[in-house]
Every structure is written in C-alpha cells, then in structure tokens.
Amino acid sequence: MAKLYMHLYAGIALTVTVVGLAAMLIRPPHSTHVDRNGVAYYTPQVLDPATGKPVDLNVLIRHYRGD
Hints:
2 helices
C-alpha cells in the first residue's frame, strides 16, 4: 500500500511541476516583465559607480546612454 501512495504522490508532484512550468511559459507573472530598456519592473537599486550611492537602474541607463 505504501508503494501505491508513493507512486500517487510522485505522479501528483510531476503533474503540478509540469502544469506550473507550462503556466509560467504561457503567461509569465507580471514581476518578470521588462520595460523598454530591458530592465525588470522590480529591479532593486544599484550603486552608481561615480558616486557610490544607490540609484534607480533606469536613471543609470539613461545617464550612460546620454538621454
């Protein structure tokens, strides 16, 4: 009986994994989307190499692109 339960558990785990991966590929969560600069929406601040202070990554990209 334990072997049957283990096969059932493994089958359910496989199903959940495959369905979860398929859902991520078909409709990715909003947090993985990127803006026009290719930066993810929820990217943490980065250190500005010139000043060493935290700055938004989009500001840093615009600065080095010359916008």
